[in-house]
Every structure is written in structure tokens, then in C-alpha cells.
Amino acid sequence: MTRRALADLPLEWATTETITKLSAGGPGLSERAAALAAFHALPTESNLLFTGYVDLRAAEVERAAPAVLSQEIRTLSDAALPEGAAALIEISSAGVGAYIGAEASAAGLKIAPLNAATPMAGAAEDRTAALIAALWNTGVSISLGAGRLAAPIVIRILAPEVGTSLIARIAVALGDGAEASIVEEINGSAAAAGAATSLLATSSEITLGARASLALSSIQDLPEDRAYVTVRRHTFGEKAQLQLAVAQVGARLVRGRIDHLLAGDGSGVRQVEVVFGAGDQIHDLTTYSLHSGQKTVGDLLAKGVFAGNARGYIKGVTTIPRSGRGTNSYLGEFGMLLSKTARSVAIPSLWIDQPDCERAAHGSSVGPIDPAQIFYLRSRGLTDAEARRTIVMGFLEPVVAALPLNAEAERLREVLAAKLDAALVKQPAALAS
Question: What's the predicted TM-score (pTM) here?
Fold first, then answer.
């Protein structure tokens, strides 16, 4: 077998024959063909700042071809709707199912199959986006004209079976003045040992009209025999606002990219991202923010904790062109190492061509737990494990608390605590010092 390079992701099924099957030879084939050509032409990482921090060898999905799925949306029963939710969307290897509650229906929420000919912005510049644009096998369009939803829209994404791929596009459009919240739950069946042999790839393509407001939280807790790649692209109208909270906890390999396109004057994004890696997990996460509008706000914070042999690469680029007068931006990336064999890299970057900024700041740090903090807590009666648990959960809490929904924040605390306890049991205290 040919030895793979660090950034290789060879896919035997990324072919013209596959995209012809997925499109049934109908609308969208030309868009898929252009994206497929970009996938084969583009490097895995085009940013020269980050090329040294890409390792996709944990994903063995060369033969995990996506199946042809029905693009019709199944109607779920009302019993499936979670308590307190406005609507439910389930995405799995069976396709898309949905149920719209009375409140959402009255507000004008629409859930429909994604038009096969809908182009995917960014596919010509990013290889991961090109992969999804060419080879997606299920898609859904979510739109809200000018209504306001107090209860959240729940999107459940279930991992595909071992040896297969699920590639999903999710397009969200909020009209002028619309307000909504979305909760993403990304999980699957129990993990098996070994490398990731199935692929879940998703896109989140969000367009916010003038004065629109969206709160989106996503918790990814996939089994560790899965690879997960995701692309999020957010386009902002005038004074549009986005609160984004993302938690990456599961999967053997995670590669994610987020693009914020703040073109509307007065628009803003507040993003928090929490990462927990243990064992042999790899997290490769990058956020790009383009402040092309005037008086835009970007407040981005990411924190990662890594144990065992885990690797975490947390990167970001904030760009303020000449048109971005009055920008207020902050980019913070911080990592904590729980073992001597874990590794983390934090690379925040600023590209500024506008001197008239309200703020353009960044910060980063990576390091182990301070032994003085452990000593202090142990002197107050805590065991070594209890002290480490308290410090780690306190390190992550500012990010967890920023989740827009209290129920999701509490669920994430439980997931993180369980994963942390398991990691501490697996490694002696000496390795974490």
C-alpha cells in the first residue's frame, strides 16, 4: 500500500461517475463537475501559515462512497419533536426528515429539499468545501422570512454506518428582521477501535438579512471511528447578528473551517468554540473573518483541552480591508495540555489595511496546568484528580457559559466532565505534570 503524505485524503469515489449518479444526470451536474475539478486541483491547505499543521492520515475513507439518497423530506411524527422546540430536522443515511411545530408554522418557517442547482459559495477556493459541493448526497433548505421564533429549531445529524459517507448541505436563510435559534446535535452509534473508516461531511450555509438575528449552538460528539469535516459560511446583511457556539468533542479526526463575511455595515458575530481531544484524536480548526463592512464586530474565542496523544490545531485569520472602517475585532485561541504527549498549536493572525479601527486585537497561549494551582487546591482537601478536574472545567466554563441555550450548556458540561474523567483515569498524574 502506498504511504500517504500528511495532508493526503485520496478518495476513490471522487469521480465524474459518482457525481453523475448523485445528480441523476439532472440539474446541478454542471455545478458538481466544477466543484469536483476544484477538489482535485486545490491543495488540502492553501494558507501557507497553516500548511505545517495538517494531518489527515487518521481517516481511512478511501472506499467509503456516499450512497444515492432520496431528496424528498419525510414527515416525522409530532411525538418526535423535542420538548420546547419549534421544529425538528433529522439528517441521516436515510435522508432528511422534518416536523414543524405550530409556532414555527405560524411564524412562516419553511423546510424544503435543497435545490440541486444551488451553487455552494467558497467551493472554488477551499478543498473541503469543494468536496461537499461536488459529492453531497442529501441537502435541506431552511428559511424564515421576517418572523420571530422564541423556541429553537433542532437539527439532529446522525453519523453514517461504518464504511460509508454521509455528505450533507444545510442552507439557512433569515429575512430582514427575522430572529431564530438553532441547536445542532451531531452524534452516532458506539465507537469501534481503530482509525476512522466512515465520513460525515456537512456544510452550514447561512445568509442573514438586514437586522436578522441568529443564535446557533452545535455539539459534536461522534464515535471515534468516524471522520468529521465541516464547512460553515456566514453572510451578513446590515446590522445582522450571529451568536455561534461550537463544541468539538468526538470523532477520530475533525477538520473544520468557519468563514464570517461581515459585509453589512454594523453587523456582528460572537463566536465561542470549545475542543476536547483525548487518545489519538486530531482536531484541525480554522476561522476566517472578513470585515468588509463599516463598524462591524467580531468577538471570537476558542479554548481546547488535550490529553493522551491528542493533537489540536486552532487557527484563525481576521482580515480588515480598506472598506472596514471602525471595525471592532478580537481573536483569542488558548490550549491546555493534560499530558506530556499531547500537542496543541494556536495561531491567531491579523491582516489589516485600515488604520481607523476601534479595536483589532488577538491573543493565544498553550501550556500545561500550573502546578501551583494543583498544590493550592490539594492543600484545600481535593485529590489530585479532583484538582485537575476543577481547573480544566474552570478553564472551559467561560466558553460553555456563552452557549445561547442553558439546556445545551448543561448538556455540554456533562459531556466534557465525562470525557475528562475518562482521560484522567487513563493517564497517571506524573504524565500530566
Answer: 0.94
